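Review box. Two proteins, two foldings.
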Amino acid sequence: MHIHIINPNTTASMTQAIHRAAEQQASSGTRVSASQPESGPVSIESHFDEVVSAVGVAEEVLKGEREGGIDAYIVACFGDPGLLSARELTRAPVIGIAEAAFHLATLISTRFSIVTTLGRTGIIAEHLLEQYGFRHHCRRIRAAEIPVLDLEHHPDAAFKRIVEECCRARDEDDIGAIVLGCGGMAGLTQEISREVGIPVVEGVSAALKLAESLVGLGLHTSKHGDLDYPRPKPFTGKFAALSNLQLPRK
């Protein structure tokens, strides 16, 4: 089984950290690879960043489909940028880390809170909760108010702020679990859970396990309806290379 992780931002060190965290959770026999787009934002902290990064996600899926051999993809940004368009491009399952984390959190608790990086990205998470049907499960969206790249550049200070916010969520929100709201927090789950004392769900690991399950069950992205392959058509300007897309319909 080959699962490919796409980090939608262009920070290679974060891609490597996400890759390492996923490999530690992968089952025996599961190969995990990872990549990031060649162009785009170095971190994703706004609607604008998400729109630009979604193009990079699509390009990485197209690259994977042309090379072949990938059984499932993971979009490793908590905004799940470009998730549905990525699903249009392949029969392989494509899992967003926010949707995966929400699903798993509801299996172990009736209510959870999200602890994310910046307050403005919490609004994006709120939109996703509504879209995915999990709004009534989430008590509160909390922000540690740290830039995403602080997870790379100032890891100790960032970890301290995240733990502090998780403890507030535990003490004030009447919840059973915490969802970590950033792909850059991959690999921190066990440490944070030890500090906080309640279950902590991190999206990269959740997505990896869901992807393994879907592949193991032989389930693929449905091509009946809106997730069918996009109709080939001309594209202009910088997107001309996407014209008359011919995808391997395996």
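Next protein.
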Amino acid sequence: MALVDDQQLVRSGFGMLINSQPDLAVVVEAGNGIEALAGLAAVAADVVLMDVRMPGMDGIETTRRLMERIKGAPAGSWLSELKIVVLTTFDLDEYALSAIQAGASGFLLKDAPPEELLGAIRTVFAGDAVIAPSTTRRLLDHVAPMLSAPSPASDANAAAVASLTAREHEVFVLIANGLSNPEIAAQLFVSEATVKTHVGHILAKLNARDRVQVVVLAYETGIVSPG
């Protein structure tokens, strides 16, 4: 994985934590976005931990540029599967929203417990998105009016949601309300493997890269309301 932060001490601390895990290793370190883009052009990684505030090029712009590369990468390549988790010390809505709009699969605060950080890396690698729990609902409630404004894109999203089967729609609503696959399985009395199948179909039909995009789309289409 890649670690991008302008503070050497922060990189060292996160690096030691990550490298202490048998299934994780830091293969790229960078002090700003420009270095990160150069490093990830030469070395393959699965997940990027990206600081938001950095000199030269910040984490939001770096995420946007990486997403351009990702979208243009051949299917099945490591780059096409690269995921980004944005880290910040600022528990502010605009940073979380900017990160998600730029294409990040996760948003966490730097003061998150080590086990939460490691869990987030593994969750994003496995294909699920993660947002800091303290910001999730507030963020989406805050931007709900903007997300639900009429537009050609919202019409297309509504049509995509209408294409879901009844069971897929059930799973879609539960994802949008923040339930994990095991929680969805327990609520619907089905196996976790069945839930994963439904989630895969939902992502494909909605043209969503991950669960963050599914949740945002639920707000856009009025499936989930603020409050």
